[in-house]
């Protein structure tokens, strides 16, 4: 290999003993980035390249690590590709790697760890879906060029051969990266047919890397969006998660709607594009939801939060119940009564269909259900008991509810926006004050189930639950009580309960407990 130096530099020998081969049309930042990349591979990955070369096989760093290095982003894990089949890879790294795993071996991938560095090595391959199949057919290849050709986008079809450290870019990925342009190495129709999930990856990369899909990519994505139906819900979900956690999910969501992808993944989102009445008596629900998403992300940053999937999903989905609940009343008034209840149910159904974890589904559903609760606060007329209920109902989602509720204010009326912000400042202060007095998220009745049974002299049964709920409401209304006062309130409640039920409920309960 020629000993290529950057302009203005003298030829130099790297620690690995082989000079990097680099094209001369890099920007200063890209030169620095790829130099850093080469520096990071001098030891472990360079050594692995030499190991494969000695065994008569090719090895190259490929895809994300090369792209990210050129973007100046930190590289954590390394993806490599080789002409060696998996069993040969295992034989080559035996005794060298600190740990090896074969979870992806059916798809030609072997994972390993060496000196704290995690690497994945995949045999040159091509993969494609049959028209009605949910599983790709994998075929091994023999050429780095052909392996790069089958990759999703040109910016992911760049490589560095090892141990030579030759930069390989057969499809113009470097130029596309410079121009923030998203193209496929071959025809986009072929690429999307090989793996329809790449249609979603196109919008994810647009959001994640601030890249613009090329016209032919946009056209093919729109024409082939229905091919996503053959991709498993789990793979679609994983792409959606990456999109929602990107720096600009709004761009990705808008492209999903524009391309028709959302019709197959999140059909509730395009349905929010309601017609606006001529007098603008209600907002564009779709645009409002995207603005709430933007504002929630901004509040994340201000509050020092990490990108929060649950919060972002709730912001996007909080008004999906509006199309189903829209009603036109006299005077041209538009209402969306109980859209938060309907929306909570819809969000749970959609996230379940996408195979999201149960805790994520429950958390998003709770936030959607509660996002309107604050708007009954007015000018601070809520009693302490109402504030306790607000905090208790939110539970472990309280901090997210704070952010979502604030983000949901998209009015252009500055006076109204300032008033809403002051009101929410007030409710947060009151919650903090009450939290200092008692742990609101752990509020329980002053008497437990055993004590209720002893005081009322009854056994287990439905009445215990009714009594427990009565005491909980009493606790939320009045704050902590001592045991004697709580017991007296319980006895009074029980007498009233027996009178209202004609005495039958208590007798049946006591009889049940005596059996």
UniProtKB/TrEMBL annotation:
Q: What is its EC number?
A: 2.7.7.72
Q: Name one Pfam family in it.
A: HD
Q: What GO molecular function terms would the record report?
A: CCA tRNA nucleotidyltransferase activity
Domain HD residue range list: 285-404
Enzyme type, top EC level: transferase
Region feature Disordered, mapped onto this chain: 1-25
Q: InterPro entries per the record?
A: Bact_CCA-adding_enz_type3_sf, HD/PDEase_dom, HD_domain, HDIG_dom, NT_sf, PolA_pol_head_dom, PolyA_RNA-bd, tRNA_adenylyltransferase
- Cofactor(s) for this UniProt protein: Mg(2+)
Query: What keywords would UniProt list here?
Result: Magnesium, Metal-binding, Nucleotide-binding, Nucleotidyltransferase, Transferase, tRNA processing
This protein's name: CCA tRNA nucleotidyltransferase
Source organism of this protein record: Streptomonospora arabica
């Amino acid at each position: 290999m020629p000993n290529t130096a950057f302009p203005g530099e003298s030829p130099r020998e790297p620690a690995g003993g082989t000079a990097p081969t680099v094209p001369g049309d890099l920007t200063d930042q890209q030169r620095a980035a790829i130099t850093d990349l080469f520096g990071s591979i001098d030891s472990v990955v360079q050594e692995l390249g030499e190991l494969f070369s000695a065994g008569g096989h090719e090895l190259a760093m490929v895809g994300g690590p090369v792209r990210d290095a050129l973007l100046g982003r930190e590289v954590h894990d390394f993806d490599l590709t080789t002409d060696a089949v998996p069993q040969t890879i295992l034989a080559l790294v035996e005794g060298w790697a600190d740990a090896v795993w074969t979870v992806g071996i059916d798809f030609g991938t072997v994972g390993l760890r060496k000196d704290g560095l995690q690497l994945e090595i995949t045999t040159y391959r091509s993969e494609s879906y049959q028209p009605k199949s949910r599983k790709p057919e994998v075929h091994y290849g023999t050429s780095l060029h052909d392996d790069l050709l089958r990759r999703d986008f040109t910016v992911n079809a760049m490589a560095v051969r090892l141990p030579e450290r030759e930069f390989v870019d057969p499809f113009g990925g470097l130029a596309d990266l410079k121009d923030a342009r998203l193209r496929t190495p071959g025809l986009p129709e072929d690429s999307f047919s090989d793996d329809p999930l790449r249609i979603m990856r196109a919008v994810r990369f647009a959001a994640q890397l601030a890249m613009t899909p090329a016209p032919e990519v946009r056209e093919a994505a729109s024409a082939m969006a229905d091919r996503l139906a053959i991709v498993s819900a789990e793979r679609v979900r994983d792409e959606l998660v990456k999109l929602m956690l990107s720096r600009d999910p709004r761009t990705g969501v808008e492209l999903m709607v524009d391309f028709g992808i959302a019709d197959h993944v999140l059909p509730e989102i395009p349905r929010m594009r309601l017609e606006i009445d001529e007098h603008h008596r209600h907002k564009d629900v779709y645009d409002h939801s995207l603005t709430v998403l933007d504002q929630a992300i901004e509040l994340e940053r201000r509050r020092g939060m990490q990108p929060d999937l649950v919060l972002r999903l709730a912001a996007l989905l909080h008004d999906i119940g509006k199309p189903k609940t829209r009603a036109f009343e006299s005077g041209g008034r538009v209402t969306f009564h109980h859209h938060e209840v309907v929306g909570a149910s819809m969000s749970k159904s959609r996230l379940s269909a996408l195979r999201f974890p149960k805790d994520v589904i429950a958390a998003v559903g709770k936030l959607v259900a509660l996002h309107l609760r604050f708007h009954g606060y007015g000018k601070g007329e809520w009693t302490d008991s109402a504030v306790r209920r607000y905090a208790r109902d939110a539970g472990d989602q309280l901090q997210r509810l704070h952010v979502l509720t604030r983000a949901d204010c998209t009015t252009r009326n500055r006076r109204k926006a300032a008033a809403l912000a002051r009101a929410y400042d007030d409710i947060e202060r009151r919650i903090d004050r009450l939290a200092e007095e008692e742990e609101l998220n752990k509020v329980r009745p002053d008497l437990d189930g055993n004590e209720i049974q002893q005081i009322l002299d009854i056994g287990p049964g439905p009445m215990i639950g009714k009594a427990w709920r009565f005491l909980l409401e009493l606790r939320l209304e009045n704050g902590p009580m001592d045991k004697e006062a709580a017991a007296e309130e319980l006895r009074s409640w029980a007498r009233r309960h027996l009178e209202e039920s004609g005495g039958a409920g208590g007798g049946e309960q006591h009889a049940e407990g005596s059996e």
